[in-house]
Amino acid sequence: MSPDPIPTWTMFPFGGLVLSMAFMPMLWPHAWEKRWLQALIVGLCASPVVCFFLTHGHAARVGHAGSEYLAFIATLGALFVTAGGIYANGDLEATPRTNVVFLLLGSALASIIGTTGASMLMIRPLLRTNAQREHTAHLAPFMILAVANAGGLLTPLGDPPLLVGFISGVPFFWTLRLFPVWLLYVASFAIGLYVIDRRAYARESRAALARDRAERKPVEIRGRLNVALLLAIVPASFLPQGLRESAMLAIAARSYFATPREVHALNSFSLAPILEVGLLFAGLFACLVPIELGLAARAHELPLQKSWQLFWVSGGLSAILDNAPTYAAFMALGRGLSAGHANLVAGVEPLMLTAVSAGSVVMGATTYIGNGPNLMLKAIAERSGYTLPGFFRYAVFAFLAMLPAHVVLTAIFVLLEH
After folding, report:
1. Which residue ranges make up each domain of the chain?
2. Exposure string (b/e) for 18-29, b if CB count within 10 Å is 16 or more?
């Protein structure tokens, strides 16, 4: 007996869950912090979809989604725990050149230890370095643009959308082909930071600069065992299913129990964020199944047919919704549009996959809610006494800072499709 067709209603719970994740933390932040409420919403959204698939001949798809979820959350959890066990601090001379080095180093690390890990590792020494200066409101926003988002473009470990792609069949090293996109954005951010910071540095008082030079301290790194554990995540990613997840769990457990409590305290480390991600993404992976099937089947009926369109729409939605499920949905759309083409990557035409990858990862920087590390960097900077732009002012700044690179990349997509 063949499976029943997929009804349209099964696609709605995915949208409901994604919208809940995007707006409930802003509208009802204290209520959203309750784990029981998150579980209730996940259950209300995922249960009807799972029940339909289990009772209408699609049990294999539910099992496949479950295995993908376990691989995703095991890898993300290992990255989160090991990165949280590394503490860096110091106070260098706060020149524009030093701040650009922080941005470039963080952008490179983001593709190795993830945007969250790199953001948490780099933000404290950057803030400490610039604590004696007065004109510093631009520093954290540039770190959000580069380290918390665009820097993660080069590997599946860099950002959750690309990890979703890897779990869905995109080869691990395929994302290295995004290096020109990475370079375009990171270089534009580095130039922008240098120009703005040079002007700000010229406005600093002599007393502030003298204090900055007098209070220099070398960079200190603690929890070095976790550096080796982070590097072990890469080969563990290539293990067969089952062994891979077990290895990730072992790496995370080793890191968590071997890291001194003082290091976790200095990083304000807690398992709560990854537990929340694990709960919410269990619902997302369940609700994603009909989205993938529906978009793949109806791709040619939609007004999104070109790579540059996928870039802008996936990016625009990633600015206000979680970028990992946005990537998954548009990857499914790209798979439908690519049917019958040759040389596909995980069923998607390479240019379309590049567009969805770039849009989902980079444009997550457009708002504070576009990617998890954005809010983390904002909170740490504000607790350290730094003043950051408000929500809409930051969104305008981020859009304008990224616009030149957006225009260049859009033009390239248009040219390559003709």
Report:
1. 9-416
2. bebbbeeeeeee
